Amino acid sequence: MSKSKRDWKDSDGSVSLEASMVFPWVLMITFLLVVFALFISQRALLYYSSTVMAERTAFSWSNSTKDSRSGAYPQGQYDGLYWRLTDDALVRGLFGLVTDQEAATSVRIDSEMVEGQGRNAENKLQRIGYETASVHRMGTGEIDYRNAGINRQIEVRVTGNWIAEPLSWIRGDGETETEVTALIVEPAEFIRSFDLVRYYASRIKEAGAGGDAYRDKAGGVLQKRE
C-alpha cells in the first residue's frame, strides 16, 4: 500500500491543523451571535420604554393628579364633573364633529420636553411623557391621543438613535424605530358613553327632519357644555 493511502486511513490528527480550520468559524459565529443579541436588546429596550409610556398614560388618564405607577391620587383632587365633555372632547368624538386629524392630540418626545400640569389632553401627555423620558432612554418621537368616542387610545412612536456602533456598521443605519398603542379603559365611562349613543341613535331614527339634521342639533346642544 502506498504512503498516500496510508495517510488517509491514519486516525491520528493534528491539533494545530484542525484548530486552524475550526476556530475561525467558531469565532465568526460567536461574533454574529453577539451582534444579533445586541440588536435584539436595543429593540427590546426601546419597545419596553415606549410600552411603559403608553400604558402609564392610559392608566392615569382619568385623573391628572393620579400617580402613573400606583394609581393613587391626593384625596379630594379630581378633574371636575364634566372634564370629558370639555378637555377630553367626548362630544366631538361621539358625534363625529371633527376629522381624525382634528381629533388627535400630539406631543413631541425629546430631551427638552417639559412636564405638563393641567388636565387637558396635551398636559396629560406631557406629564407622563416627561416622567418616562426622564427615567428611560427614549430617543425622539411623538405621543398621540385619539378620541373616537368609545374607542380612545394612546399611540407612541419613538426613534432611537443610540444604537450600538457595531450594529450601525452592519445595518448601515444608526436608528431603530418602534410603535406602541394602548387603549384607555374605563368601564363606567364606557357604559355612560354607550347609553348616550344608544339614546341619540333611537332619537335620530325617529326624527322627522332627517338623521343628519338631528345629529347636528344634538351635537350643538351638548357642545354648549364645553
Structure characterization notes:
With 226 residues, the protein is an alpha+beta fold. The chain has a domain at 17-67 and 81-185. The protein contains nine helices and four strands, in the order H-H-H-H-H-E-H-E-E-H-E-H-H. The protein has helices at residues 3-9, 15-59, 83-86, 90-95, 100-103, 121-135, 165-171, 187-206, 211-223, and strands spanning 104-109, 140-148, 151-160, 176-183. It has a four-stranded antiparallel sheet with strand order 1-2-3-4. Strand 2 (140-148) and strand 3 (151-160) form a beta hairpin. Helix 2 (15-59) packs antiparallel against helix 6 and helix 8 (187-206) crosses helix 9 (211-223).
Provide the structure class: alpha+beta
Compressed to H and E, one letter per element, the order equals HHHHHEHEEHEHH
Strand content: 5-15%
Question: Tally the helices: what do you get?
Answer: 9
Rg, please?
29 Å
- Would you report the number of β strands? 4
Average of the residue pLDDT scores:
75
Task: Give the strand order of the largest sheet, numbering strands 1, 2, ... along the chain.
Answer: 1-2-3-4
Biggest beta sheet summary: 4 strands, antiparallel
**Unreliably modeled segments:** none
Instruction: Name the shape in a single word.
Output: elongated
Helix content percent band: 40-55%
First and last CA, distance: 103 Å
